[in-house]
Every structure is written in structure tokens, then in C-alpha cells.
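Hi everyone,

Forwarding the result from last night's run.
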Amino acid sequence: MTPGEKLKQLREQHDLSLKEMSKLLHTTPRTLSGWERGQRKASIYAYMKCTELFDIGLSYFYTDN
């Protein structure tokens, strides 16, 4: 699973819309959608923000779970 797919899975597990999650990550829904589909690469800031919001380690995005 790619980091973008994991980002989408995390968003869906927390019942967040693209709009809600993008606000939390200080980006736009279009950009977030691009990250999730692998069309764009998220910044390390976005992943670090997720670790704070969802109490997970950064390795969540880069290792097989």
C-alpha cells in the first residue's frame, strides 16, 4: 500500500471527508485527493501532522502494516 493509499485509509477510518481532512492538514481537497491517488506527493509536514492528529508513528506511511 502506498503512503497516499494509507492516508486515504486513515481518513476513511476516522470518517473524515476530503474537505474536513484537508482543513486539518492545511491544504485543499484537490491536493489531498492527488496525494491519495498518487498523482502528487505529500510533504513531510502533512505526514507529521497526521502523526499528531491520529497518534500514529511516521513509519505507518512507509512500512507494510
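The CA atoms of residues 6 and 60 lie 8 Å apart.

Cheers,
N.
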